[in-house]
């Protein structure tokens, strides 16, 4: 019997690659209501909106097969205007269904088969475990058969939820183990008796060295598994059994960008602590009131800040706009605290949290033990300008978690000033990006430690936020993850003409076009317009986001592929352009599934209207 090459690969489907500011400088409105469902515009007969489009639902994977492609196990050929089964693999779904060589294949489900290419096309949307009805003619007599597709492969998978012990490590001069820095109470390591300062030397049969990544070692374990941990405490070596638990911060896929800890409340209460140093005092102009205005005011932060730079809205204004009023940011800026050491003394190592713990101690001592209890997170502002340092240093703007006296503080840290000499009050742009982490969003920029990685450029807050206090909106993917956007889900094989309004100020102007029925790969379509906090976007029009493996990727109209795509020919990133007014399996960029197979996605005749809306057709297969 022949192996699965040639056209059989097509049939197997695995190898086929078939309230906003109306003008700059005006005050944003105090609330931004969600738009009402749009109706079919009178001037666009035949076009459907998000409210009137034909919709579909994401189909749950069958029998735990996930997005594994389906395999029927036949090779076909065209003969005398018919599609004839040339070979049938032994022990295949086709063989089990009773298909034999010489059968004339006439129908797959509801699709009439007239040429060999239709066999692959009709199966592309199906996954392993799906049932398929087959019409054949044998010896001049029609027969109705059915088969259940098998997986093309059976890949091994990591645990769906990350298993943890509840430890963090710190650098050590010793090479024969991993030194415990913190052991989180109520988690398995602490319950097993491990303590800070212990040296882990072995997990089950695997030796643990100083540079080992214990997270990677535990990746093959699932929550509930019990491991044997050998450790050294002083001169004594012992072993304990540790039963792993699910990481409460983890998403559904350890390799996914899907946010783990989405903030679910309607109001986020933020504590702001300004940290002074003996050699770096705060600016007399940048008071607690100045920060309250910049971070928490409503519709009034539109003139100049405390040091005279133009401003265009507060951080609270920004998140009220992008969430359409679904998130309110409130808080308090505490009076500054002065830590004991000069600023440079806290920058010697990476990951050092002494300065932050000291700052909280000073606040609690001065303002009372309960003064920090009413807040969901903390912003630390270090006086002076941005410190030139490496990623991972305490002064690098970042979001993390601080354990202080058995309480976990979610925090982010930024410089008070945007200049090296500290003479300009920082604007809200970097604050909005870091606050995005506070509510659960990941970084979506190209990672410098991963050459060749592709970010989202200036098209998403969580990639490269625009500066000068006018951060752009986040991507449709981010808004959906946060519950601020409800896309209309459509089947790309259903023909319809659609119209989409700009997303700014709405909670529904987005289409989700499935590339695979189980939702493991899809496209989010949003229209961006230069308005409100999106006023400085480099271009406007239809943005197409491919979402695969839980990660958004921007499909640029200009067709430049790879890491340079989001940063090249910026005005030509949104559709339509002279480069592309369609997005299909045959254009560049291509809508072909990155997972292989999938449904054919044809988005054609993309046209931008004078009022900013965009029209296009879905399902019209033009060649």
TrEMBL record:
Residues 1-22 form the signal peptide. Gene3D superfamilies: 2.30.42.10. One of its GO terms (molecular function) is metallopeptidase activity. Pfam families: PDZ_2 (PF13180), Peptidase_M6 (PF05547). Keywords: Hydrolase, Metalloprotease, Protease, Signal. Residues 57-140, 146-215 form the PDZ domain. It comes from Humisphaera borealis. The lineage of its organism: Bacteria, Pseudomonadati, Planctomycetota, Phycisphaerae, Tepidisphaerales. The keyword Cytoplasm does not apply. This is M6 family metalloprotease domain-containing protein. GO terms for biological process: proteolysis. SMART domains: PDZ. PROSITE patterns: PDZ (PS50106).
């Amino acid at each position: 019997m022949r192996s699965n090459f040639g056209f059989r690969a097509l049939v197997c489907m695995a190898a086929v690659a078939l309230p906003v500011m109306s003008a700059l400088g005006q005050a944003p409105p105090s609330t931004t209501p969600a738009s009402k469902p749009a109706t079919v515009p009178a001037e666009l007969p035949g076009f459907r909106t998000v409210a009137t489009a034909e919709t579909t639902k994401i189909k749950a994977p069958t029998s735990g097969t996930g997005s594994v492609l389906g395999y029927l196990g036949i090779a076909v050929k065209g003969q005398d205007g018919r599609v004839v089964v040339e070979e049938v693999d032994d022990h295949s779904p086709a063989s089990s269904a009773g298909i034999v060589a010489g059968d004339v294949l006439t129908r797959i489900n509801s699709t009439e088969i007239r040429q060999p290419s239709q066999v692959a096309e009709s199966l592309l949307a199906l996954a392993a475990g799906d049932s398929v009805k087959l019409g054949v003619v044998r010896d001049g007599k029609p027969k109705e058969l059915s088969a259940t597709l098998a997986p093309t492969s059976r890949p091994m998978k990591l645990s769906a939820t990350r298993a943890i012990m509840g430890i963090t490590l710190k650098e050590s001069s010793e090479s024969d183990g991993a030194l415990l820095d913190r052991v989180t109470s109520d988690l398995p390591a602490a319950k097993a008796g491990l303590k800070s300062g212990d040296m882990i030397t072995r997990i089950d049969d695997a030796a643990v060295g100083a540079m080992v990544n214990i997270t990677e070692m535990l990746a093959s374990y699932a929550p509930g598994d019990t491991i044997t941990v050998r450790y050294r405490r002083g001169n004594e070596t012992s072993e304990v059994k540790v039963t792993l638990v699910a990481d409460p911060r983890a998403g559904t896929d350890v390799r996914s960008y899907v946010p783990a800890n989405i903030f679910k409340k309607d109001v986020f209460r933020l504590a702001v602590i300004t940290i002074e140093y003996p050699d770096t005092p705060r600016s007399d102009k940048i008071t607690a009131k100045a920060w309250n205005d910049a971070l928490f005011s409503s519709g009034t932060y539109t003139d100049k800040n405390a040091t005279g730079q133009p401003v265009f809205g507060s951080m609270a204004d920004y998140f009220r706009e992008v969430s359409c009023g679904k998130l309110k940011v409130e808080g308090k800026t505490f009076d500054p605290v002065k830590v004991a050491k000069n600023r440079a003394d806290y920058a010697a190592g990476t990951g050092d949290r002494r300065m932050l713990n000291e700052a909280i101690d000073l606040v609690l001592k001065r303002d009372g033990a309960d003064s920090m209890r009413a807040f969901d997170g903390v912003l630390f502002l270090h006086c002076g300008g941005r410190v030139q340092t490496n990623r991972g240093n305490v002064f690098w703007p970042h979001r993390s978690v601080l354990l202080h006296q058995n309480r976990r503080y979610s925090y982010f840290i930024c410089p008070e000033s945007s200049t090296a000499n500290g003479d300009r009050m920082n604007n809200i742009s970097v604050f909005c990006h870091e606050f995005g982490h506070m509510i659960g969003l990941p970084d979506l920029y190209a990672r410098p430690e991963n050459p060749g990685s592709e970010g989202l450029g200036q098209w998403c807050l969580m990639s490269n936020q625009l500066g000068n206090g006018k951060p752009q909106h986040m991507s449709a993917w981010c808004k959906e993850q946060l519950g601020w956007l409800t896309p209309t889900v459509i089947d790309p094989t259903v023909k319809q003409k659609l119209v989409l309004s700009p997303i700014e100020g709405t909670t529904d102007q987005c289409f989700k076009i499935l590339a695979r029925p189980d939702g493991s790969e899809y496209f989010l379509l949003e229209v961006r317009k230069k308005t409100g906090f999106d006023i400085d976007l480099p271009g406007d029009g239809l943005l197409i986001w491919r979402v695969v493996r839980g990660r958004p990727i921007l499909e640029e109209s200009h067709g430049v592929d790879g890491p340079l795509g989001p940063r090249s020919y910026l005005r030509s990133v949104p559709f339509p352009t002279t480069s592309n007014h369609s997005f299909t399996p045959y254009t560049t960029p291509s809508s072909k599934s990155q997972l292989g197979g999938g449904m054919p996605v044809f988005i054609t005749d993309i046209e931008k209207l004078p009022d900013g809306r965009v029209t296009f057709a879905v399902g019209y297969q033009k060649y």
